[in-house]
Amino acid sequence: MTLRLYSHPFASFCQKVLIALYENQTPCEAVLIDLANEADRAELERVWPIAKFPVLLDDARNCSVPESSIIIEYLAQYYPGPVTLLPRDPDLARETRLQDRFYDLYVSDPMQKIVFNRLRPADQKDAYGLAQAKASLLTAYAMIQDQMQHKTWAAGESFSLADCSAAPALFYANVVFPIGEAYPHASAYLKRLRERPSFARVLREAEPFWAIFPQE
After folding, report:
1. Do 49 and 111 belong to one domain?
2. Is 12 inside a domain boundary?
3. How far is 133 from 29, CA to CA, in rounded Å?
4. What CATH number is given to the structural domain containing 105?
5. pLDDT-based confidence at 52, cuts 50/70/90?
6. Can you say whether the dihedral through the CA atoms of 77, 200, 213, 132 is positive or negative?
């Protein structure tokens, strides 16, 4: 297999890359990395000393590519398929990258802060940080509500890199801090994402790992 993806099916940034792979049916071997496993972590550190996944290994080109957005751009460049995840038009490409960063930084990041706070011991909970994360998500939900009034997908009418980012970020955010009835366009967008075959497949593959998700 030319391509190998070091990842975990329950991790949101790994899911982002899996969506891109499934969109174009790009052959790729999934290498399951359990960060709690010493051998797995050592293997990940070998290819990317930061020890964060996903990391794509391309044996044909003898290179490794970290970071989800960069991986998807790499796939678009060297393994393109029928779904153009990064538009060729420079203005639309810039908007796509902007929306990709928006969902990574302003949806996924505060969502993860809420999740990590659940993992803290009871006497080390960060009430202030939790309130900040929820406030950030409310701002993001309001922006998505406004943005999605007249669009089908994050960057326009075509599914793109931005939607690969939005799908897991918005899905998990809705789990830990529900979007609610005040943002119907944001909820409708999440519904479209969940019905997209590539993301529906990702969610099915993640189902066996829900037991590890921290509850309140």
Report:
1. no
2. yes
3. 35
4. 1.20.1050.10
5. very high
6. positive
Q: By residue range, what is the domain housing residue 66?
A: 3-78
Three-state SS annotation for the chain: CCEEEEECCCCHHHHHHHHHHHHCCCCCEEEECCCCCHHHHHHHHHHCCCCCCCEEEECCCCEEEECHHHHHHHHHHHCCCCCCCCCCCHHHHHHHHHHHHHHHHHHHHHHHHHHHHHHCCHHHCCHHHHHHHHHHHHHHHHHHHHHCCCCCECCECCCCHHHHHHHHHHHHHHHHCCCCCCCHHHHHHHHHHHHCHHHHHHHHHHHHHHHHCCCC
Same domain, 51 and 104: no
**Mean pLDDT value across residues 197-209:** 98
Split into its structural domains, the chain has a count of: 2
Is residue 107 located within the same domain as residue 169? yes
- Decide if 51 is inside a domain: yes
In the block, residue with structure tokens 């969506």: 19
Q: Give pLDDT tens digits for 62-97.
A: 999 999 999 999 999 999 999 999 999 999 999 999
Average pLDDT over residues 155-170: 97
For position 57, which CATH number holds?
3.40.30.10
Q: Which two tokens stand for residue 119?
A: 């993992």
